[in-house]
Amino acid sequence: MNATNSGVELVDIRPSPSNVKAGSTLELLATVVNKSPDSIMLPAGRCDSPLTAFFMANVVIRQDQFQGCTATSSPFELNHGEEVTVAGPVPITLYQAIKAGKTPATATVYYLTENLQSGTVTKPFVFTIS
């Protein structure tokens, strides 16, 4: 399911920190807007994130076995017309900037509908690593 028919949108995708330097790690922030008529559920809490990314250049995705996470949280409900900013990736994943330059990427948010159907919204974005 994509944004065109689900009513769920991904806007304002940006790295954190906003000035990413080569050699540093980063996370992403994105705002999820629920324009669908129903509520949706997003994974929530310190140990879970609905937001993932794929980078076409300049960033590698690493697993950090030292950042274990055992706390679970209830999903976050987002009603019609509401929006929330989410951060990713999950704690055991690291985004490592390896080279300066324009960095094309795609962000994906995973969610559940009211009838527990899974859905995703994917959106391309570009940021610069200095």
Walkthrough of the structure:
The chain has 130 residues and is mostly beta strands. It has a single domain (3-124), classed as Immunoglobulin-like (Sandwich). It has one helix at 3-6; strands at 8-16, 25-34, 40-42, 51-55, 59-63, 76-78, 83-88, 93-97, 101-113, 118-129. The strands form two sheets. Strands 1, 2, 5, 7 and 8 form a five-stranded antiparallel β-sheet that branches. Strands 3, 4, 6, 9 and 10 form a five-stranded antiparallel β-sheet that branches. A hairpin with a 4-residue loop joins strand 9 (101-113) and strand 10. The longest helix is centred in the N-terminal third of the chain and has 4 residues, at 3-6. The mean pLDDT is 89.
Short description:
The protein has one helix and ten strands. By secondary structure, the protein is mostly beta strands.
- What is the molecular shape? globular
Beta fraction: over 45%
Query: Number of helix segments?
Result: 1
The counted number of beta strands is 10
Highlighted features:
single chain; 130 residues; mainly beta; Immunoglobulin-like; 5-stranded antiparallel β-sheet; 10 strands
Helices and strands in order, then pairings?
Blueprint: H1 3-6, E1 8-16, E2 25-34, E3 40-42, E4 51-55, E5 59-63, E6 76-78, E7 83-88, E8 93-97, E9 101-113, E10 118-129
Antiparallel strand pairs: 1-2, 2-7, 2-8, 3-6, 3-9, 4-9, 5-8, 9-10
